[in-house]
Amino acid sequence: MVLGVFLGLLLTCLLLLSLWKQNSQRRNLPPGPTPLPIIGNILQLDLKDISKSLRNFSKVYGPVFTLYLGKKPAVVLHGYKAVKEALIDHGEEFAGRGTFPVADKFIRRCGVVFSSGRTWKEMRRFSLMTLRNFGMGKRSIEDRVQEEARCLVDELRKTKGVPCDPTFILGCAPCNVICSIVFQNRFDYKDQEFLTFIDILNENVEILSSPWIQVCNNFPAIIDYLPGRHRKLLKNFDFAKHYFLAKVIQHKESLDINNPRDFIDCFLIKMEQEKHNPKTEFTCENLIFTASDLFAAGTETTSTTLRYSLLLLLKYPEVTAKVQAEIDCVIGRHRSPCMQDRHSMPYTDAVLHEIQRYIDLLPTSLPHAVTRDVKFREYLIPKGTTVIASLTSVLYDDKEFLNPERFDPSHFLDESGKFKKSDYFFPFSTGKRICVGEGLARTELFLFLTTILQNFNLKSPVDLKDLDTTPVANGFVSVPPKFQICFISI
Length: 490
What we know:
The chain is of the alpha+beta class and 490 residues long. The chain has one domain: CATH 1.10.630.10. Helix content is 51%, strand content 8%. The strands form four sheets. It has a five-stranded mixed sheet. α4 runs parallel beside α10. The termini are far apart.
């Protein structure tokens, strides 16, 4: 009896302490819904559609508000003005990487995507410089993408117009472009090692976008103790680590410091130059995870966008017909599309922008964190606080895009039919942590899609009314539903 009373008092004291700590934290933070002890606001979030929950909260608390994801606060930025003010106008202060416990468990803040501070700055600077040296933004990378586009067309011809799931084929093409930069060589589309790696990348995105991973990230204590799909994710991370480690070992054995062949060679040369620097960030672990980041960012986001693009082009054949008419007029049938063509193809350019806006690939991007105590508007945000930027709220702003819930290329066309830029176009995020491979992704999307439409008509084996374009998951990435497509040679 006495023990029971004691335990009850102890539990009450712990709950009161938790409430007191939350209340003291909340004093200078933006307003938000009242959190429950330990679990915070998790019960008030729709984990299958976080963007919808954030939109509803913003109607009550304004464009800058606080949510408790478990015991820790996260400041949410909703709408163009708030996102721009934080990520661009205060870019340095908001350039940290927020916690992502499932990934942090394995990656330990290495590489580019999940790192912060000096590690992130060094890895990002080196990655950008090396990618540019190997042609990103130049004619040489365009040549690589054009070559891969021709290989993609050859592979699609083999389907002979029979209904197929395009997931793997569309994953192979951007992955091979990254392979040519990181490993020097591309793989055959039937290479089993290559297909296994593509399969793992696809699986990782689906798991990362599931509600269960949102739970694990908000309550990291369960990662070590409960079963679930996060264990498969960690197993896949381990496979990728050993895969890249084997590539690094192969490169070390054949390295010629006077003739670097690819990204790994360049990193190994930098490691050798910095080997006497005790504070160097150029370590084998950073090499493995930076190479892995380039693959994940440069493959899965582009292949998912390509897959979603084909689904939308199937759903809206009138849009596809206009793009093909523009291809016929500007490019014709007898040469490969090139990036220069884009300037003469305003409708196609508008379609590509509208696809990226509409699919809202990264609804909240990855979490940011403030790098120091920062006064933002009338609030004081302590160093290390997680910041969530709702990209959905920018891409679906109804003041900038008339009828944002509709797929409509005219969102990016003026009254005379010319392409119209928008400051609200943030599919790759914005500010200091904008996607490293943004330029490469733009090149791939234009060249792959125009080459496909130059060579094939698209046909759906099911009635167009039955084609659903609603994502099956939109936690980390908006994953399109599975669908079948027929590629009919022109």
